[in-house]
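Q: Joint fold for the lines below.
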Amino acid sequence: MSLDWHGAWMSVIHHPLFGIAITLGAYQLVLAGYEKTRWVFLQPVLISMLVVIGVLVSCGLSYVEYRKSTEILSILLGPATVALAVPLYLNLRRIRQLFWPVLTTLVVGGVLATGLCVALGWMLGANHMILMTMAPKSVTSPIAMLVAEQIGGVAALAAVFVLITGVIGGIFGPGLLTLARVNSPEARGMALGLTAHAVGTSAALQESEECGAFAALAMSLMGVATALFLPLAVSLVA
Amino acid sequence: MLLRGLTWLVLFQLIGTALNHLFLSILPGPIIGLVLLMIYLMTRGEVSEPISLAASSLLRYLPLLLVPPAVGVMVYADQIAEDFWAIVGSLVISLMVSLTFAGWLMQKLIDRQASRREPS
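A: Joint structure:
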């Protein structure tokens, strides 16, 4: 009797749990690798993403199918965002003490992060659609997607730019901050959350709870500020 | 315990989604939910055990939750390749400059505030 190996393989890779399996597997593999080597390039999100893409491509699976099977993970992203209120609340006293530094950094840093990116993109010859899609790259992807759409960019591509930004921030951010002699957890968290949103915040949470709280604060403030003022700024310029 | 906390978080997100649909189409539901939970915690004056447990469990796995949306990059490989240097150049440089600058500025402002408070 010949066994139907091909059929079995097909039913495994098209099973709704396959996407979850490779995501969980890749993530734990990367975490284990990071624990062993402490190598900064083993940024969990980036490397897991590369591993998952590799598996999908070699199995001939589409992103649409993968996305559908990992829907439960994406759905949990909502409550996880809500959960950021807890570290924020626990550090509320410290945040109140630093009200003016936080506000100043938000305005100056936020304008710099957005303005510099658009200016550089324009100088390097990116077209209008790409520029408008890159403008909201420092905020969390649901906001960035909404804002990009409003100002004439592409929502799905905005999510990609947000992600690239976040991943680079997660890899190089802590090192850059140390080089610039930024030692206080408040300032490190603020910088990471302001420019690298959720990925920066998860890097900040690994440093300390206080650092994570300021990152969550910066991420939500930057998100709200971008949602409110970026469309306004674009309509004034155009 | 964990389930009860999770239910609260989901509830806040759903209220946020409703408000997003009704009044604030510019802010996504989870962010409105975050603000609402923050207000709730401030009026209660403490974080209850279930919410604290659910929040810390979810936040521990935040990087894992970000993997599926990240994989979406593969769909846009062509568009990114077209403007590759403009995109990567401006994203990387602006991020590195603004991140370092924001950290530096915040550190300076914190130090200044601290030295001002000490003499008084």
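Q: Anything notable?
A: Chain A has a mean pLDDT of 84. The CA atoms of residues 147 and 227 of chain A lie 6 Å apart.
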